[in-house]
Amino acid sequence: MDHAPFILAAYAIAAVLLAWCALSPVLGGRKLIERLRRAYRETERDHAPKP
Amino acid sequence: MNRIWLFFHKMGSPPWFYRFSGRLLPWLWGLFLVSAALGLYLGLFKAPPDYLQGESARIMYVHVPAAWMSMLIYVLMAVMGFVGLVWHVRLAEILAMCSAPIGAFFTAIALATGSLWGRPTWGTYWVWDARLTSELVLLFLYLGVIALYNAFDEPRKAARAASLLALVGVVNLPIIHYSVTWWNTLHQGASISATGSSIHPSMLWPLLIMAIATKFFYAANLLVRTRSRLLEQDHRKQWVRDVIMGTGN
């Protein structure tokens, strides 16, 4: 039996799952920071003295 | 005050933790990449094939470290959950809850790669063997902790409930570890123990290097997740505003 497909599949699955595990919080964190930045800017604008 | 205690007290402060972890992260990712590259190179290109299992034994360099991490992360999650429950340390609760998805990923990797190793070695992808079944139960425990945490609106109440479930699930860990000695399983017994190893050094070193690499991965990933969770939970506090608006780091 040729073992290469099993080895390649095992490492490919591990690589995909580890990449997903590593990247999902990074992307989620960036979205969160962008959302918070927008919210802070809006509150700053609302509290700025009116001309 | 003892310097170690002082360090732990500082770690309990979210702004201090955020700044400290930010400085630590590039080092942890760097160490992970270097150790994983070295471990993979040694495991895939330098280590000899197994005398009995042939080339398929190379799956060991990803399967075994993932399986070890699945159990280690559960222990750490339960310990941090316990600290959160008993001493009400919010950061411990967050660290415990951020560990759960990483542990689930490692358990899924251990199950998937083990299944792919089982086909050429045992002739089947899956058997309801004590080791495999208890590892599958571990995945369900992680998913249960994640689901329970997300079922509550109030994060501290959610962390307390999920920590309790994590603590109850600890009973599964000795079952996983000793399953190969308590029952007659298709899964092989432990090759590495406290007294020594039956693996040749040419195969043992890549395995240990990969085991170290996965620890760096866990530490880096945990810090990334915890930092985001802190920003989310403390978004009404001034330190988060300073970080987001660029006046902090």
Structure in words:
- The complex is a heterodimer of chains A (51) and B (249).
- Chain A is rod-shaped.
- The mean pLDDT of chain A is 92.
- The relative contact order of chain A is 0.07.
- Chain A is mostly helical and 51 residues long.
- Chain A has one helix spanning 4-47.
- With 249 residues, chain B is mostly helical.
- Chain B has one domain (60-189, 198-244).
- In chain B, 76% of the residues lie in helices and 2% in strands.
- Chain B is built from 9 helices and 2 strands, in the order H-H-H-H-H-H-H-E-E-H-H.
- A two-stranded antiparallel ribbon of chain B has the order 1-2.
- In chain B, strand 1 and strand 2 form a beta hairpin.
- In chain B, helix 3 runs parallel beside helix 8 (201-233), helix 4 (90-122) runs antiparallel to helix 8 and helix 5 (130-150) runs antiparallel to helix 7 (172-182).
- Chain B is globular, with a radius of gyration of 20 Å.
- The mean pLDDT of chain B is 93.
- Classes of the chains: A mainly alpha (51), B mainly alpha (249).
**How many strands appear in the DSSP assignment of chain B?**
2
Largest interface: A-B, 25 and 33 residues
> How much of the residues of chain A is beta strand, in percent?
under 5%
Give the helix/strand class of chain B. Answer: mainly alpha
What is the overall silhouette of chain A? rod-shaped
Major beta-sheet overview of chain B: 2 strands, antiparallel
Tally the helices of chain B: what do you get? Answer: 9
Strand content of chain B: under 5%
Strand order of the largest sheet of chain B: 1-2
* Whole-number mean pLDDT of chain A: 92
